[in-house]
Each structure stands twice: as C-alpha cells, then as structure tokens.
Design goal:
Distance between the termini: 24 Å
Number of helices: 13
CATH architecture of the largest domain: 3-Layer(aba) Sandwich
Strand content: 5-15%
Largest sheet: 8 strands, mixed
Order of helices and strands: EEEHEHEHEHHHHHEEEHEHHHH
Mean pLDDT: 79
Radius of gyration: 19 Å
Low-confidence stretches: 1-17, 180-190, 323-340
Helix content: 25-40%
Strand order of the largest sheet: 1-2-4-3-5-6-9-10
CATH class of the largest domain: Alpha Beta
C-alpha cells in the first residue's frame, strides 16, 4: 500500500493585517441543497471554530478578529443552528463532521486546526477520526463525549414535551423569575450562575418551532435522560501523534471538569489547560488567555504527520487497555456510552 503524500507546511510566515467588520458578516454556501452560514476572515493556516449545541458562529465574534491576524478563521453555523438551514435531517455527530468537511471543501480548504466547544468538541474529535488526513491539530473546549455526566437541564430537555418547556422559558413572566434565580445563585456563588446567562441566550436563539425542533433533534442524538449517549473514549488512542490541547473551566456545570482529566489520560501526549473560576464558556470568561493559548499552541506545534501505515498500525493494535472514565468509571460505563457511539 502506498502512503498518502505528507502535507507540506507553509514555509513563509503569514502576513499580518487588520480584519474589517465586513469580513465578520455571515457568508453562505449551498451544500447538498441546504444553505450553510459561516464567518470567514484573515489569511494563513486554517483555523476552524465549531460552536456548541444551540449556539452559532456568533459565539466566537470577540475572538475572530485577533485570531484572523495570523490564521484563516472559518466559523460555521452548524446545520440546524444560527442562520443555516434547519431541515428534518440527520443531526448526529458524524453527520456534522461530514458537513464541516464538505463546507471546507467548497471553500478550498484541504486541512485545518479544529477548535471545538461542547458539542463542537465532539464534532471536532469525530472529524479527526473520520478525516485524519485533513486534521492538523485538535483544540477541545469543554468537550462532550468524554463521560455520561451532563447538566440535568439538558437531560430534561431530551424528554418528551421539551418544546413546551423551552417555550415556557421564553415567556416574559418566566424570564423575570429565572433572572431572579440567577441573581440568587450568584449571591450563593453557585457554579450554575456562571453559565446561566449563556445558556439562556441559547434559548433566545430559538425563535420558532423549526429552530426548536432542530435543537431537540441535535440534543437527542447525543443526550438522553441518563446523560451523554455517545463517547470518544473508545477511539481516543487514534490521536497518537495528533497535537491536541484541552481547555476547560474548573467550574463547568454543563460538562464537569473531571472529564478534562479523563480525556487527557485517554489522549496520548495531549495538553490540558484549566481556566480557574470559569464555567462552560472559558473563551467568554477569559478571551485574552484563550486567544493566547490557541495562538501559542498553533505556532509551536507541527501539523499532524498522517500516513495510512501509521493509521493501520494504530487500528490493529487497538485501544491499549480498558479505559477508565473521567471519574474512575469502569469499562461498563464506556460500553454503555458506546451503544450509540458515532462511527
């Protein structure tokens, strides 16, 4: 079998330039008959920012201008999110990875460093698994798919009647009560208070039944009443040789920080950075540090050097032993999570 030719990195440093407001506006491509929205700015090595469930590319707006000084930054609205179409479609993690690949292909981007937040972290990991030859580095931010634990709020929304619950949160009287509850949580220094405003913004981003339906379909693809139902732990060993950085808030109430330690243990050579006092959105809590870490990581690591022979050997050798979950879970938990693992 002939090896795939290795990618050649750019020998010259990318030019620095400012990013105008117009470049941060949404652009569109039609792929497979569906409109895909995205933001694209800058020039240099490609950096793809993948948002979490219910969110959109707008979540990265504060970071894009500075990152675009040294990178070609591409931030898509995943199908069913933001300004992208919201069809009755496949909203699995694997389908999202395919969608990112197809969008990058239409934009002429052959390989990239992927930055994925929450669900987007699972999508980034799945992209690296499905298309290792197109993945240069992985930066996983409060990523899903490491353990079953997830905030009870998402487990509840996965149940029947979720449309009614989400609609109720949008009622003026209910929002007032929720606001008072958030203030109380802040006074009591409850972790949920850190993420509550961002989580409520996700509800506000569901203006109609179609948006709400796409959100619930996406959620049910990865979460049920017991917690997360997909895992990346069973194939994390395939990241050997892939520069990988994990970023997590130590007060994350959506995906507990102990998942970060489980992911680091399962991913050979990965680097872990904890944001003290931050919740599920560390890039909102401390954007300057987040940006600095991304820039330092991409400038000091070489893109993954992928070959078919190396990939074949990793698959033949398999996972190096029964993987423990982030909280010392047994292999039983991994097997249960793998029942609906994206393949």
């Amino acid at each position: 079998m002939v090896d795939v030719p290795q990618r050649r990195t750019m020998s010259r440093a990318p030019r620095l330039r400012s990013v105008g407001d117009g470049e941060l506006e949404l652009q569109y491509r039609v792929v497979h008959g569906y409109r895909r929205a995205f933001r694209m700015a800058g020039q240099g090595p490609a950096l793809v920012l993948i948002h979490g469930i219910g969110d959109s590319s707008a979540t990265w707006a504060e970071l894009i201008p500075d990152l675009a000084r040294t990178h070609t930054v591409i931030a898509p609205d995943l199908l069913g999110h933001g300004a992208s179409d919201k069809p009755r479609a496949d909203y699995s993690v694997a389908a999202y990875a395919n969608g990112v690949r197809d969008l990058l292909t239409t934009l002429g981007v052959e390989s990239a460093t992927l930055v994925g937040h929450s669900l987007g972290g699972g999508v980034a990991m799945q992209f690296a698994y499905q298309f290792p030859e197109r993945t240069e580095r992985l930066i996983l931010v409060s990523a899903g798919g490491v353990g079953r634990e997830v905030t009870p709020a998402l487990r509840l929304v996965s149940l029947p009647g979720a449309h009614l619950a989400l609609s109720a949160l949008r009622l003026p009287g209910m929002r007032l009560q929720v606001g008072l509850a958030i203030r109380l949580m802040k006074l009591l220094d409850v972790d949920l208070a850190l993420d509550a405003p961002d989580l409520l913004n996700l509800v506000d981003a569901l203006p109609d039944h179609t948006s709400c339906d796409a959100f619930i379909r996406t959620l049910r693809a990865v979460v049920d009443w017991r917690g997360q139902v997909v895992t990346m732990l069973d194939r994390c060993y395939l990241t050997a040789g892939m520069p990988t950085m994990l970023l997590w808030g130590d007060r994350d109430c959506v995906v507990p920080v102990r998942h970060a330690y489980g992911a680091q243990e399962a991913m050979p050579g990965s680097r872990l950075e904890i944001f003290e006092g931050a919740g599920h959105f560390p890039f909102h809590s401390d954007p300057a540090r987040f940006r600095a870490l991304v820039e330092e990581f991409t400038s000091t690591t070489a893109p993954a050097d992928w070959s078919r022979d190396h990939w074949r050997e990793l698959l033949r050798e398999g996972r190096p032993g029964p993987a423990a979950g982030p909280a010392g879970d047994t292999g039983r938990d991994l097997r249960e999570a793998s029942e609906r693992s994206a393949t």
